[in-house]
Write a structure and sequence with these properties.
The chain is α+β, with helices and mostly antiparallel strands. It has 2 helices and 9 strands; from the N terminus they run ααβββββββββ. It has helices at residues 2-12, 21-74, and strands at residues 94-95, 106-111, 127-134, 137-143, 155-160, 163-172, 175-177, 188-195, 199-206.
Length: 220
Amino acid sequence: MMAMRNTSVNRRRPKASGFTLLEVLIAMAIFSIISLASFSIFDTVFESDDKSKASNARLNELNRAFMVIERDMLQLARRTVRINGEAPSDKYLHMDDQGFFSETNALAFVRSGWSNPGYMLPRSDLQSVAYQLDDETLNRLHFNFVDPVVGAEPKVRPLITQVDDVKFEFYRQGKWQKELIGKNLPQALAIIIQTKDFGEIRRQFLIPGDQDKTSGDDDE
């Protein structure tokens, strides 16, 4: 009886079960694939986030720069300057080929509205400014005094980086002109910036210019 009872108990005992080596290898392979896919997704997300931040920073740089340029253009003054201590110029706008700068593409003029509360600083509210391309960067230059002394160094403020070229156009006599002829101010001014990432950017600004005469030379 005891032998029969033990045999019956042995028959009811479940068999030990587990994963085979093949099943373990398959599970590890699936886990590796999922891990690689997850890493790739996270890497793509982080890369996209970095690109988005860089793009936003670039757009902010451009917006700030054009706000500065527009502010200067709107307050352009009819004031000539002395270049390198010489006699006053007979022009309000100066280009790089007119002796104001020896470097590449530049435009210089005098603007009003330079804040000086209570005239606490020993200067006027006029400011001599210039925009110049140097080492792939569009810079804004200004002097503390409208007629700087010989050898005075301007203060330089970088505005836009990654710039290949800068050009200026002037709206006169009902059309845009690439050359500035005569003393009178144009009615509008355009700045064309060739950037490495966004290509050509053109901005046009109305300025307090002179009305064109219907006849005769208005530059006398």
